[in-house]
């Protein structure tokens, strides 16, 4: 799972892109904007332990079901995808 996050961070840094991962049955989101961040329900950065209690960043993709991935450049939504691999493939 860390390999996926490493790829997201690499693409984010090299292309100036931001990823937002939404999960089913989880209130919080994960933002990847040059680093991994926990985001609250409104999309604001928040402490990981408050947004995902008992779940570590490396286990988030195993413990929570991914619902969608949004890809942004600045405030512009570039696309919405069902999987991380689909999002990464669309950017190449």
Number of H/I helices: 4
Fraction of residues in H or I helices: 25-40%
Give the class from helix and strand content and strand pairing: alpha+beta
Give the CA-CA distance, first to last residue: 20 Å
Shape: globular
Question: Main beta sheet: strand number and arrangement?
Answer: 5 strands, antiparallel
Strand order of the largest sheet: 3-2-1-4-5
Q: What average pLDDT do the residues reach?
A: 92
What number of structural domains do the residues give? Answer: 1
Give the uncertain stretches in residue-range form: none
What pattern of helices and strands is seen along the backbone? HEEEHHEEH
Describe the structure.
Strands 3-2-1-4-5 form a five-stranded antiparallel sheet. It is an alpha+beta fold and 92 residues long. The longest helix has 14 residues, at 2-15. The model has no long low-confidence stretch (mean pLDDT 92). The chain has one domain (2-91). It is built from four helices and five strands. The radius of gyration is 12 Å and the shape is globular. It has helices at 2-15, 48-51, 60-63, 84-91; strands spanning 18-24, 29-32, 36-39, 65-73, 76-81.
Short description:
Helix content is 33%, strand content 33%. It has 92 residues and is of the alpha+beta class. It has one domain (2-91).
Secondary structure: elements and pairs:
Layout: H1 2-15, E1 18-24, E2 29-32, E3 36-39, H2 48-51, H3 60-63, E4 65-73, E5 76-81, H4 84-91
Main attributes?
single chain, about 90 residues, alpha+beta, five-stranded antiparallel beta sheet, 4 helices, globular
């Amino acid at each position: 799972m860390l390999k996926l996050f490493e790829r997201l961070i690499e693409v984010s840094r090299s292309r100036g892109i931001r990823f937002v991962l939404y999960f089913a049955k989880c209130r919080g989101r994960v933002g990847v904007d040059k680093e991994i961040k926990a985001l609250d329900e409104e999309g604001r950065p928040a402490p990981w332990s408050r947004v995902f209690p008992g779940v570590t960043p490396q286990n988030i993709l195993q413990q929570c079901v991914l619902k969608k991935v949004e890809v942004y450049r600045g405030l512009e939504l570039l696309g919405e995808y069902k999987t991380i691999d689909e999002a990464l493939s669309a950017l190449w």
